Structures are given as C-alpha cells and as structure tokens.
Amino acid sequence: MDTDPGQGKKSQSPPLNSRHIQKLTLINSNQPIRPSSSRSVALPLSHPSLLQPHPPATQLTRFQNPFSQTIFTPINLILFSLFLIILYLRLRPSKPAAATLPVAPPPTVFKTFTPPTLLPYNGTANQPVYLAVRGRVFDVTPGRNFYGPGGPYQNFAGRDASRGLACGSFDADMLTEDLGGPLDKLEDLGGEEMEALRGWEERFTEKYLVVGKLVPVGHPEAEEE
C-alpha cells in the first residue's frame, strides 16, 4: 500500500491479474516479448457457412464437365436407343427359309400306243407332247417350245416322226396319212438318211424319257391296252 505525500494518506493499488503477472515475469526474466499474433476471429458453431452442406459429387461433376449436359439428354438417349434397335434389325441373321422339296413328277407308266391313240398327245388341252421314232414313243414335253403348238417341229407332236427326222424335213407330207394302216417301215431310205435317223434317236434317248412303244392298229399288244 503506497502513501500519498500530498494528502498524507495511503493509496490502494489496483489488484494485479494473471496477465499483468505474466508481463512482469517476462520483464524480470529479461526475455523478449513476442509480438501478439494477428487477431483471429472465431466463428460460432451455428454460423450459416458451417451449417451449409457440401454439394454432392454429381453436381461437382456437372460443373466440371458441362459437355455432358449437352450429350446425355433424354432425347439423345432415346434417339441412340432407336438407332441401336434399327441397327440390330438390319444386321441380325435372317431366318432360313423352309426347305421346299421339289414336287416329284407323276410316275411314268409304259404304254403301248397306236397311231390313233398317240395323236391326242400333241400338247393341246394341257396334254403332254409325245412323238415316235422307229417304234419308240418319247415324252418331249420338256421341249414343248420346239415340239408343242407353235414350235418349229409341231407337225411331229403326237405322230411317228421317223421319216421326217431321217430326211431332215419337217413338212406334213413326211407323216403317215392313214393312221389305221401299217406303220412306215422306212425301207426306201438310204444309208445316210438312216444314219441321220439313228443320230436323232440317240439324242432323244439321252434327253427324253421313253414312255411306250408304237404298234399298228389291230396289233395283239394294242388289244390288251
């Protein structure tokens, strides 16, 4: 307690707090006084900046990659899906067509013909085209364009074509007029004509089916038919 010399009374000093005691201690110990650091402001825990949640990762990605916002739109995704569907429909393997077996031709029955019974097989009325060469009847329907109606050899359809083929003539006078008479025996033909006839016969044998034989009217085999 100090004494005031003017008044003769003792003056009471203010009490020292902990901060003053620390300063006095530093002065007495001859230690340098450190300058106080910059004042830091402590934010209360209820500050709005601390309570605001962090943005989700998806939002950050959008902000970082704005190009994705123009590509991955619902309309573009729908169009891309349609493109994939169309591409699949075009590139997928087509289903194999059901195998269809060719229709077998009706069985051929070997028959005995006479000139009158052979005549209807001339290609008219949806009939097959037959002709006879040296007693054998050939089915020349596959060559209807040549031997059927309107073809260059139509005179031979349904007839004995032996003499016309041997002579290289397709005229009607090469045919037998009397269908009920005997067959043409070709006895007046020469060697070259018979050779030509054999060539035609071999050609028909290789290309067409033999469906019967030709006999004259009244022949025993014709009666059996």
TrEMBL record:
SMART domains: Cyt-b5
Localization (cell): Endoplasmic reticulum
Gene Ontology MF annotations: heme binding; metal ion binding
Main localisation: endoplasmic reticulum
Domain Cytochrome b5 heme-binding span(s) in chain numbering: 113-215
Signal peptide positions (record): none
Keywords in alphabetical order: Endoplasmic reticulum, Heme, Iron, Membrane, Metal-binding, Transmembrane, Transmembrane helix
An example Gene Ontology CC term for this record: endoplasmic reticulum
Record carries keyword Endoplasmic reticulum: yes
Transmembrane annotation, as ranges: 71-89
UniProt xrefs under InterPro entries: Cyt_B5-like_heme/steroid-bd, Cyt_B5-like_heme/steroid_sf, MAPR/NEUFC/NENF-like
Family recorded in the similarity comment: Belongs to the cytochrome b5 family. MAPR subfamily.
PANTHER family documented for this protein: MEMBRANE-ASSOCIATED PROGESTERONE RECEPTOR COMPONENT-RELATED, NEUDESIN
Protein name stated in the entry: Cytochrome b5 heme-binding domain-containing protein
